[in-house]
Design brief:
Layout: H1 3-13, H2 16-26, E1 35-43, E2 56-65, E3 68-77, H3 86-104, E4 114-120, E5 152-155, H4 161-167, H5 170-180, H6 183-196, H7 200-216, H8 234-253, H9 268-281, H10 286-293, H11 297-310
Parallel strand pairs: 3-4, 4-5
Antiparallel strand pairs: 1-2, 2-3
Helix pairs in contact: 4-5, 5-6, 6-7, 6-8, 7-8, 9-10, 9-11
Amino acid sequence: MHKIHDRGYIRLFSNKEIFRQLVTSFVPQAWVGELDFSTCELIPGTFVAQEYKTTFSDLMYKVKWRERDFYIVILLEFKSAPALFVTVQVLGYVLDFYRHLIDSEKELRKLPPVFPIMLYNGEREWTTPLDIAELIEGNEALGDYALHYKCFPILEYAYSADKLNEIGNIVATLFLAETQHDFELLVQKLLELFEREEDKQALSLFLNWYRQLAVHGRIDESDYRAFEKIYRNREEVHMLENAIRAEKKQLWKQGKLEGVVEGKLEGKQEQNMLIARLMLQNGEPLAKIKLYTGLSDEALRAAEMEQLKVS
């Protein structure tokens, strides 16, 4: 995953409506129904330790729960596969936040709840333990003093297309875009979404993010101003669709895939496999490779295995 792509995620989930949809649709906890999202406040700054800033980033919100402060942190995993001790990193994050509160609020007598969400959009299956107890050998021998701590995972790949279509909001369509890579299907979903969503600013933020993803596979820092465009009617969304098609076509004409010698290979499948291997060498994400080549998941896995052997 590219860091700039990950920053695009940070920009998306900094929107309060998109954050609300993430929590209400993908966190099936009883207390969610008692949150007062009208009090939602994005906490500035970060509590990620310096040594972990290259592997994940954070967004923290404060919201009222039963008239008390309740904190929800979204941790964005930057790696294509989860790190083994990610739960230790999350626990350290929460403890650093608590230390900050203790130092800054002298009248504090009790700590507020902090709910950690680990949002993972990698293609590889999550196999890392989520309970820190599973990472401590002999932890059970400590009895009542054994350490237990969990972070809540939202794994994009774990949701079927049917489930995401059933949810049908901005965040569900975002996950659909990340996992399905079917441009024609997504065009239809975007139009349906535009008809349903009342918050056009939040929806427009997503549409602008999707345009960058669909065309470039990532979001250039110079393009963040494009995030602010607001789509106000269905015709403008159709214009966005046509713009994506035109930009993708232009990229092919300009030969953005360097190193591909046209006409040297016979057969479209073989040429696409070569393109996939070249893109893998350059560290391109699987989503972008699939978008450019149209290869099946099986063929992409084969190309990835070939590349691993070479490297």
